[in-house]
Design a protein that fits this description.
The complex is a heterodimer of chains A (about 425) and B (about 400).
Chain A lengths: L7 E4 L5 E6 L5 E8 L13 H8 L9 H10 L3 E6 L4 E8 H16 L5 H18 L3 H13 L12 H4 L4 H11 L6 E6 L3 H12 L20 E4 L4 E10 L7 H12 L5 H8 L6 E8 L4 E10 H16 L7 H18 L3 H15 L5 H9 L3 H10 L6 E6 L13
Parallel strand pairs in A: 2-6, 7-11
Antiparallel strand pairs in A: 1-2, 3-5, 3-6, 4-5, 8-10, 8-11, 9-10
Helix pairs in contact in A: 1-4, 1-7, 3-8, 9-15, 10-11, 12-14
Chain B lengths: L1 E6 L5 E6 L6 E7 L13 H9 L8 H10 L3 E6 L4 E7 L4 H11 L6 H19 L2 H13 L13 H6 L2 H11 L5 E7 L3 H11 L20 E6 L6 E8 L8 H12 L5 H7 L6 E9 L2 E10 L4 H18 L3 H19 L2 H15 L5 H10 L2 H10 L6 E6 L5
Parallel strand pairs in B: 2-6, 7-11
Antiparallel strand pairs in B: 1-2, 3-5, 3-6, 4-5, 8-10, 8-11, 9-10
Helix pairs in contact in B: 1-7, 3-8, 9-12, 10-11, 12-14
The chains are: A alpha+beta (about 425), B alpha+beta (about 400).
């Protein structure tokens, strides 16, 4: 890599882990704060607690009303977002570098001391309910939610955006308790990237986040996953298909081979699924595969959307392409995967937001920093034989099939059901 | 950052904003061709043609195009709107020549019959996919009713019927009529040198036909209409409203952009506090769309069907208050700060600069640097907002919806 990376990793006195990448060539700065309070922490029968908390964070903090907090952050040009995931509620923000420093005290007040007033609870819960209802009109998103649910054991597959039926059982006290128990510095991670001075940053962070207290919550207990295949009836023009099977997680020594295998299937318009299913047969508009990774578990997930009369053929062809992945992998094909990955790595350095997000995510998944150079070298070291051997060793022995549409497809093309 | 431009002997315009501090370079052809340029018989041809571009020319096969783009690690794609078809790629600087070679091939597609027949299936799938998304259906429907009788009301995707009936000869003749150098701008943003770029463009882009096709820009006054597409299977009610706003050449468009942020940004705006924050709707916003010779306010909301009428009233109330009382100095300052920050963040990536670079030139033969944009945004006054509201108040002429309701 042409550009050397300088990284600062430090812990504040209260245990908050910070990873910072100075980027002197840009004007902006961005942060990504992972709070260990995601959907996996929702109590049984109260799925949606963390989603409501995400909605309540911006509603005022530490004596500031919702409107004055919003105005202060807007005046700093802070683009911001709370997102509920399975492990974390992630707060992401970006603005020009000088103003990010000014925004940090406000961000800390919002995250550490949100008002969480009773009167703000109903509107926040209503918004979560409305987005769940809206999801029912978006079959592709709904399929994604179902596929996750059927691929991972609970609570990792639980819908972090909430369950409609559970919302009425959640109380304002649940939200406050969730905040107190899970929004804690000890297992939170703060990634920052941008044109900032490391020493000054560390001082500012210590002064605004240093008083944050709390100890890490116990580990999440993993349960079982529901039986597949699963079909949900939906009066839609298309049938939406989702497939998933086990692969290795980010921390696994063979992760890059797993990544390459998915990339051969779906990394670019010359990849196998796009070429065989869409370009040669015209069976669908959207088809994609991606690698989803947790700390110690991972899946390959595939999506295809197609009109109902072509759904069976789409499923058959897709599964066939996946199962014959180990056949005839060429050096050219792998080289294209390498080229795309390297180019993405370099372009990532043009965006403080994507760097901040990657820094925080790597610290969570691997508990260490991964330099772009290391990724570059690992990608360069991939060989056709290595990838082929991985595909053989990790051939899907069974696949999860989830579908949504007017008619369930016949799953007999799948290797085996779970 | 440095801006340079020139017109090639063929008539093709090249514009470039070079910046040695970034790692990549983005290039895009902006073609003045979209659904508004189509006749009813070929509805959807601009977008279908955009797909056919990736099937190759006389030198590259369909497989070649995708393979070579992937070989150079390009982030590439294309898009079609009512007015513009755009083909673009972002690459590392050493691959710029290869990217230009491929992009120029996209503009001269071979339109082979077998590729045409196969891709037709993909287009029909794409139409079905959007049919399943009520917010898209609602957009198509309001454009058709608001711009009823005006070319801007024509659907980008076309219909199952028009696409099924379309022939490759019709597409070829449409291509011949619109893909002329006089209708095309090649924009380049990022890490490159203009003196090295120019010969590459001359080498690879000389085959684009010379000439120019004018677009008809009819005068237009929208009629008051309310039109709901009833879909009993939908859970939420989706509603959009449109009303006249400044056209793409009107200097008031900057004030309009800021007003849309004050009134209808997705957070911290008037609509946000009145409808979203209290949980009355799933989402609600107001946007400003500028077109060749026209402009429109466009609001969107989705909510529980039983609250739809009440929520439309709430929107109308917000609009009426703004029309009567304007905006406060604090609101304007807040919106300036928001927009300025977005301009800086988006502008850090060559891909983020490309679209405003190309559109500004295609629509107005104008270049604006990030600093120019910031200056214009900073200089918008409350008086200009007042003038805007006098000429183009937030008065919605057209209402369209998709969802369970058959009346409001």
């Amino acid at each position: 890599m042409e550009v050397p990376q300088f990284i600062e990793i430090f812990r504040l006195s209260n245990g908050l882990l910070v990873i910072f990448e100075p980027m002197p060539d840009v004007q902006s700065a961005a942060l990504s704060l992972l709070l260990p309070a995601g959907g996996t922490r929702d109590a049984a029968g109260r799925c949606g607690t963390s989603a409501i908390l995400s909605e309540m964070f911006p509603r005022g903090a530490d004596g500031l009303s919702s409107r004055s907090l919003c105005a202060a952050l807007d005046n700093l040009g802070l683009q911001r977002n709370f997102q509920t995931g399975s492990a974390h509620i992630t707060f992401s923000a970006a603005t020009t570098a000088d103003r990010l420093t000014d925004a940090l005290p406000l961000i800390a007040r919002m995250v550490l001391q949100p008002n969480l007033h009773d009167e703000d609870f109903d509107p926040a819960r209503d918004l979560v309910a409305q987005s769940l209802l809206a999801l029912e009109d978006e079959p592709r998103q709904q399929l994604g939610r179902l596929l996750r649910q059927y691929s991972y054991p609970a609570p990792w597959g639980n819908p972090s955006e909430g369950e409609l039926a559970d919302l009425e059982h959640i109380t304002p006290d649940d939200i406050r308790q969730h905040h107190q128990q899970f929004v804690v510095p000890e297992s939170a991670i703060l990634g920052i990237a941008g044109n900032l001075d490391p020493e000054q940053l560390q001082q500012t962070l210590e002064s605004v986040f240093g008083g944050w207290r709390g100890t890490a919550p116990p580990a999440v207990t993993t349960g079982t996953r529901p039986a597949a295949p699963f079909h949900q009836h939906h009066e839609s023009a298309q049938t939406h298909l989702g497939l998933a099977w086990d692969t290795v997680q980010y921390s696994d020594p063979r992760y890059y081979e797993a990544w390459a295998a998915v990339s051969l299937l779906s990394g670019g318009m010359s990849s196998r699924l796009f070429t065989e299913v869409r370009e040669k047969r015209g069976l669908c508009y959207a088809i994609s595969a991606s690698l989803s990774t947790l700390q110690d578990d991972a899946r390959v997930m595939v999506y295809a959307g197609t009109t109902t009369e072509r759904a069976q053929e789409t499923l058959d062809v897709t599964v066939q392409e996946i199962l014959r992945l180990s056949e005839g992998i060429t050096e050219d094909e792998l080289q294209r995967c390498r080229a795309r990955a390297k180019s993405s790595l370099i372009m990532q350095q043009e965006s403080t937001s994507s760097r901040a997000g990657s820094l925080a995510r790597d610290m969570y998944l691997l508990r260490r920093f991964v330099s772009l150079e290391e990724i570059h070298d690992r990608i360069d070291a991939l060989t056709v034989d290595g990838v082929r051997q991985f595909v053989i060793d990790h051939a899907p022995k069974s696949m999860v099939l989830v579908s949504l549409g007017p008619q369930a497809p016949d799953p007999s093309c799948l290797p085996q059901q779970l | 950052m440095k801006f340079q431009h020139c017109q090639l002997p063929s008539g093709l315009t090249l514009i470039a904003e070079t910046n040695p501090a970034v790692h990549s370079v983005a290039a895009g052809f902006f073609v003045r061709a979209g659904s508004r340029d189509e006749t009813a018989e070929v509805s959807g041809v601009s977008h279908f043609l955009e797909h056919m571009a990736f099937k190759g020319d006389d030198r590259f096969s369909a497989d070649d195009i995708n393979r070579v783009f992937d070989e150079i690690g390009a982030k590439y794609n294309a898009s079609t709107s009512e007015e513009v078809t755009m083909y673009y790629a972002a690459v590392l600087p050493e691959y710029l020549e290869r990217a230009l070679e491929l992009l120029s091939a996209l503009l001269q597609p071979a339109l082979r019959q077998e590729d045409f027949d196969m891709e037709k299936n993909v287009i029909l799938e794409e139409i079905s996919m959007y049919e399943d998304q009520p917010s898209f259906t609602c957009y198509d429907h309001i454009m058709a009713t608001h711009f009823n009788g005006h070319p801007l009301g024509q659907s980008i995707l076309g219909s199952q019927k028009s696409i099924t009936a379309l022939t490759s000869e019709q597409m070829s003749s449409y291509h011949t009529s619109r893909y002329h150098t006089g209708n095309i701008v090649l924009a380049v943003a990022g890490n490159c040198d203009f003196d090295q770029l120019l010969p590459l463009v001359e080498k690879h882009c000389s085959r684009i036909r010379s000439g120019i096709t004018r677009r008809t820009i009819p005068d237009f006054t929208p009629q008051h209409t309310v039109s709901l597409l009833t879909r009993e299977s939908s859970v939420q009610q989706h509603l959009m409203q449109m009303g006249p706003a400044p056209r793409g050449s009107d200097p008031l468009r900057f004030a309009a952009e800021l007003l849309s942020v004050i009134v209808g940004d997705d957070s911290g705006s008037r609509l946000f506090w009145e409808l979203v924050d209290p949980g009355h709707v799933e989402s609600c916003d107001l946007g400003f769309s500028e077109y060749d010779g026209d402009g429109a306010w466009m609001s969107y909301l989705s909510c529980n069907p039983t609250d739809a009428a009440k929520n439309l009233e709430r929107c109308a109330q917000v609009f009426a208050e703004v029309n009567a009382g304007g905006v406060t100095a604090e609101e304007l300052e807040q919106a300036r700060n928001k927009v300025a920050s977005r301009i800086v963040l988006r502008g850090e990536r060559p891909m983020g600069r490309l679209s405003s670079l190309g559109s500004n030139w295609l629509y107005r033969q104008e270049y604006r640097s990030i600093a120019d944009d910031m200056k214009i945004i900073r200089s918008v006054t409350q008086e200009q907002i007042q003038e805007l509201l006098r000429k183009f108040p937030l008065q919605m002429t057209t209402t369209a919806g998709v969802g369970p309701l058959s009346t409001l």
